[in-house]
Specification:
About 30% of the residues lie in helices and about 20% in strands. By secondary structure, the protein is of the alpha/beta class. Helix 6 packs across helix 7.
């Protein structure tokens, strides 16, 4: 129990490394920074931060570059990890024992859940998403607010390759693919980092499979741009993708080795 509320979730492996989530953090700061600044009490949750608190410490630092009043709470279901993290607490950074129920008194402006659902069954994802979305700060259209953001996804051990889904209180919004371009042979290499909701859907007949197929084809067609560097090849590739796929960002993000696509274009069938 945590504050009388039943804990929801299971203990993860806890694998973590410094700077592992830097690509996700930078995207959050760029795309959700205005929402964090607008919030009266901007609270971000690092859910399932693992055996060491590095990702929560780094999240606070990166969010405060765009939202100086932002606060971060690391939430872990393994009590020993909370105890180990407590010496790192400081102004704006705290650690709590809990799970998907998010044991905080208010509703957070951001929940980041990286590499948390990897061990769960695909059938469990929708219920977890619904639980977490219900904990987000609600939209306030009169203030120009779309509400809090849940960012849930997967990355490799050193943060070279990420794929994540961004969800608001109303449901999934986008899917972002992000990579260190020098490590990439072809865009479909990112398939191994698809979040649990999509990783088993990378099969013929499913939208995410068609997207990665088209991504690889556009990458091959953009091969002449490789002489200008991997970044220019990626930018040309994504520009070509926009003809057939609802890409939600622009060149400023593409230059970072990212592309964001509307969720409805990649959502599993059935």
């Amino acid at each position: 129990m945590s504050g009388g509320i039943p804990l929801v979730g299971a203990v993860t492996r806890g694998t973590t490394n410094p700077n592992r989530l830097r690509r996700m953090d930078r995207w959050i700061a760029a795309t959700h920074g205005a929402e964090l600044r607008r919030a009266d009490h901007a609270v971000a949750v690092d859910l399932g931060y693992g055996a060491a608190p590095w990702t929560a410490v780094e999240l606070l630092h990166r969010l405060r570059t765009v939202a100086p009043r932002a606060r971060v709470t690391g939430v872990e279901i393994e009590p020993a990890r909370v105890v180990a993290a407590r010496p790192y607490e400081r102004e704006g950074l705290a650690f709590r024992h809990g799970g998907f129920e998010i044991p905080l008194p208010g509703r957070p402006t951001l929940i980041r859940a990286a590499n948390v659902l990897r061990q769960y069954d695909e059938a469990e994802v929708a219920a977890v998403w619904q639980l977490l979305r219900a904990r987000l700060a609600p939209a306030e259209p009169g203030r120009g607010s779309r509400g809090g953001l849940l960012v849930e996804g997967t990355c490799d051990e050193i943060g070279r390759r990420h794929v994540w889904v961004a969800l608001g209180p109303e449901g999934p919004r986008t899917v972002t693919f992000a990579t260190r371009l020098g490590s990439l042979e072809r865009p479909s290499d990112l398939a191994e980092r698809l979040p649990k909701a999509l990783i088993h859907r990378n099969v013929p007949g499913e939208p995410v499979h068609a997207f990665l197929r088209d991504f690889d084809r556009a990458w091959a067609a953009a091969a002449p741009y490789a002489s200008y560097g991997a970044r220019q090849r990626w930018i040309r590739t994504v520009r070509d993708l926009t003809a057939d796929w609802p890409v939600a960002d622009g060149p400023a993000r593409w230059r970072q080795g990212e592309v964001t696509v509307r969720w409805e274009a990649l959502a599993p069938r059935g």
